[in-house]
Amino acid sequence: MTMEAKIKKEFEKRFGSEGTIYASSGRINLIGEHTDYNGGFVFPGAIDKCIMAEIKPNGTDKVRVFSIDIDEYVEFGLKEEDAPKQQWARYIFGVCREIIKRGGKVEGFDAVFAGNIPLGAGLSSSAALESCFAFALNDLFNDGKIEKFELARIGQSTEHNYCGVNCGIMDQFASVFGKKNNLMRLDCRSGEFEYFPFEPKGYQLVLVDSAVKHELVDSPYNKRRESCERVARRLGVETLRDATMEMLDAAKSDISEEDYMRARYVIGEKQRVLDVCDALVRGDYETVGERMYQTHEGLSKDYEVSCEELDFLNDVARECGVTGSRIMGGGFGGCTINLVKDELHDKFIETVKARFAEKYGHEPKIYDVVISDGARKC
Ligand code: ADP
Ligand code: MG
Q1: How does pLDDT run across 93-124, given as a tens digit for each residue?
Q2: Is the dihedral angle over the CA atoms 108, 109, 110, 116 positive or is it negative?
Q3: Do 245 and 112 belong together in one domain?
Q4: How many domains does the chain have?
Q5: pTM
Q6: In 103, 165, 310, 369, which residue has its Cα 20 to 30 A from 337's Cα atom?
Q7: Beta carbons of 112 and 73 less than 8 angstroms apart
């Protein structure tokens, strides 16, 4: 049975009626890592894995939701003190509250939802969940009047205020604005964005999930941020977005070796994102792949946020002749994203699974993804 059929069956069984079906997607980020807090670019796209919900106003002041995957039913009111204790339900409650706080309308509704985005794998299942409900509640109670960017901010504020995750805007942005066969270059400084065609005929996008997460001591993320801020101050710019390699090299003698490496990565990454945009317009996926490898190299050697397992996955990809491969996400574990020629796909997966398992005792998880639409009514 399809996910949609399962949801419909469950909704009918629980609520004895029929609602409207909405969905929103998980996301990948092709390139542009650790750039958001430097005022730079990210380059995400929505994928063909989503959260789907059937929803219907119920004429009360209560929300009644059933999660098929967690097999749990929760009821909550819409006032601040009504917050449910189940984590999954807090995402939905948070979205309701953030809409209400902005002067929007939310009344009681019934919902059944399910998803096929692996949780915690770096594909942002939580943003998909928020975006799905934000989009739906905008359509059902607000005549679609809340702007799409505001829907993304509603998801982001939900993470901040109800889930304790201090995230940026990229995940919710990608989930809301995602468009089939398109990636989006988001300028994290201005909030402006542009679609770029992504139709890699003859290639596939494959995520290889190391399923490792290294415990971090003395907050390496904060240290990276501090390095970037220090160099920006030294160069007299607001963020490294405005710095060039020439400026960095001219100031090299009074920047520490470590800060220099961090800044070199960030400045290089900005250029790589722009190069990828040009390459996509030309349909040149070989250049896209090269830049992905360069990003990995930079994240590993200059920014030092890789780990043994991710470097190993990257090496195996290269040995297999994969077109592009790099760490996706903050680093220290999680996935690599790989651009793989169709004819190499099966062999690569077989090889990377076997070699990784031989070395680390467990197989990595493999997710094929296709760039698809984001938030929508089905
Ligand atoms: P991710 O990186 O995938 O966003 P998070 O930890 O931020 O990982 O979010 C995962 C959480 O989102 C889950 O613990 C759950 O609360 C919620 N969630 C995601 N997908 C589903 C689903 N299909 N059903 C119920 N809850 C879900
Ligand atoms: Mg999340």
Answers
A1: 999 999 999 999 999 999 999 999 998 888 99
A2: negative
A3: no
A4: 2
A5: 0.94
A6: 165
A7: no
